[in-house]
Amino acid sequence: MKFDSSVIHKPRSQPALQRGFFSVVTFAFWLAYAYMWLPLLTLFLWLLGVRTAVFELYLREHQVEPFLLVSLPVLALASATVLIAWAEYNRWRFRAKDRRSAQPDIGKHDIALAFGSSQEIAQALSASKVALLKMDDAATPMGVSILA
């Protein structure tokens, strides 16, 4: 296959079958990379006592605790219900209040005062899209060059 640098900038110019194949290969290598981290993850979890927790909760009597089968889904459902209720309450509470109102425009005189510059520099800055601002050592605007 001939090297095409436009593929780097436009991946959609690559054929779909080739793109899909490379995606599958990339995913397989990411899985292999993650698999290599499993011994370290196992050591970390063992140091935290996760093996002991699994043994105490599941393996001691060779069966799963019925209380866990009921309580964990109930706790997850209760947490989801509380979070959804809180979100709906906030949506109801702030439904008619738009706190993102438009701010008034600032005049050129205020811009010049904030910059510590002349009125001409403020007008030139507001009239241009791209400008080069020349400043002195005290960071006071001294001049402006309008760029095309």
Structure commentary:
The protein has helices at 6-9, 16-36, 38-48, 50-59, 66-93, 108-115, 119-127; strands spanning 131-135, 141-146. By secondary structure, it is mainly alpha-helical. The chain has two domains: 6-84, no CATH class; 108-146, no CATH class. Strands 1-2 form a two-stranded antiparallel sheet. The chain starts with 5 loop residues before the first helix and ends with a strand.
Summary of the model, kept short:
With 148 residues, this protein is mainly α.
Strand order in the largest sheet: 1-2
Q: Which sequence of SSEs, written as H and E, runs from N to C?
A: HHHHHHHEE
Overall strand count = 2
Give the tally of structural domains: 2
Structural class: mainly alpha
Protein name: Poly-beta-1,6-N-acetyl-D-glucosamine biosynthesis protein PgaD
Organism: Luteimonas galliterrae
Transmembrane segments: 21-47, 67-87
Keywords: Membrane, Transmembrane, Transmembrane helix
